[in-house]
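Final paragraph of the annual report: two paired records, presented back to back.
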Amino acid sequence: MLFIDPHAHMTSRTTDDYERMRQAGIVALIEPAFWLGQPRTEAGSFKDYFSSLVGWERFRASQFGIRHYCTIGLNSKEANNEPLAEKVMELLPLYICKEGVVGVGEIGYDDQTAAEDKYFRLQLDLARENNMPVQIHTPHRDKKTGTIRSMEVCLEHNIAPGMVIVDHNNEETVRDVLDRGFWAAFTIYPNSKMGNERMVEIVKQYGTERIIVNSSCDWGISDPLSVPKTAALMLEKGILEADVRMVCYQNALTAFGQSGQMQESDWLENTEVDQREKFSDNSVLRGGQTPVIGEIESSNDLPSNLIR
């Protein structure tokens, strides 16, 4: 089975992770622009980061047989630094229409401050003007209120629900998101947000329409194999393969494919890798390594499937 991980912060991960993800069947991923763990102090830091998402990281993924896409945006946490946020907003139009950018994201609320609200709305306008999907980060605190508020603001800005992927859902928010016609994405984390056993129950209760599974793997404790592990557990629990494919592959393709930047042929054709290639005179290899040239095969040999 092939998988798409539509939320993976690969800037924070190693080449070993890319290798394991491809072996587990992940053929494409989406990397949302996000908070790097330490506040940035210069707009130039954002410029270099955005450039990496559309440049080096795409190349790095390709060297392991994975197609890399990204969403570009000002994250909610750093929206609270208004002088910096103003400068980042000037950068966004330069990046959101570049090759491989499939949406504006991840944007939304963290502490639900006035500054977060201001820049969330400005970025929604940017997405609408460019007919781009929106990837929303929902807050960790007071999640239900923040989730509902995010959707209401989208509607105020005339963003169609079908163009919005609401992320980091749980049992408390899923009904509200689906009832309003938005995409409901779920992050499978080892210790928080959503475990894959809980995800199995979500699919059993709500079905597969507009539901998406992702890992949101980043610099914290997280698992880049969350999507294939959750898929394996769904199959073990009796969910049909066609339904597993829908929530772990097809729905992400349908939602972000609305950008016009992401097609299935991207990874079904041109499947060979050549690790002798370079990006800005840099390769993923280190001294003495033998480059991989040709097809990369998937394997079903996963470590423990359970993320409780």
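The closing record of the year follows.
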Amino acid sequence: MDFAIQFVINVLSLGGAYALMALGLVLVYGILKLVNFAYGELIMVAGYTMHLVGGSPLPWLVMAAVAVVMAILAGLATDYVAFRPVRAKSVTAVLITSFAFSTLLQNAALLFISPRPRSVPLPEIFSQSVVIAGIPTPMRDLITIVAAVALLGLFAFLMQRTVLGIAMRAAATNFTMARMLGVPANLVISSAFAISGFLAGVVGLLWMGRIGTVAPGIGLEPLLIAFIATVIGGMRSLPGAVIGGFILAFIDTTLNYTLSQDLLKFRDAFTFSLVILILLWRPEGLMKGPASGQRT
């Protein structure tokens, strides 16, 4: 029983973080039909913002809000610098500019801050534990679960009940038709990048709550996780991205519990093998999502 409770908490905590990462990636992909490879660097921006404002007398929540705002601005900058100027060009051009912007941000961190990991300020609650059914549980896991539930609920409300959400879903289904019906293209795309930046900022705070440091390459692992989760769930499906995140967390947690210490270093190989089996069964992902339409 104790094992089951601990396992469920671990899956929900990890899955919540993975689901938020995947949502930020698939939101932009749904409209542009292109993967934003600079997505991981938005997490890095949030982390370095926390590091830089860490010495100020500001309360931690204010510092966290500043970090999220900076991630949103970096998301908007990705649109204006890497995507919008070449959006009408070839897919290759957009992918290259996305990679280039990602590299630019990493090198800026290397040059102006440090290549070494830097600590980020975290409130004491992130290192505390509570006892649930006799099991010591880190508070950061519970914070991640609560944040994921709140943000997924807020995101669902935004997409289902607001004009902006309806416009974004229409653009993801058929962008050309949506534009002909009066949906402002640039506003929808910029909003997608801003929401993606917001999710990356929050995920960055939760991610660094686990590791406590930020480094120039910190965004690579979350980007890879988000990409795998969206591939599992379906590249064009928002619910699929969430489901993919939780499935990936279930696989990771199961392997953590079942593999021996000698085999644990090969966990990623086992994970990718299972992902390949899922894709052989459902090449388009577990959920299809709306019709793709033309690339924006």
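The two ends are 51 Å apart (CA to CA). This concludes the annual technical report; the extension proposal builds directly on these records.
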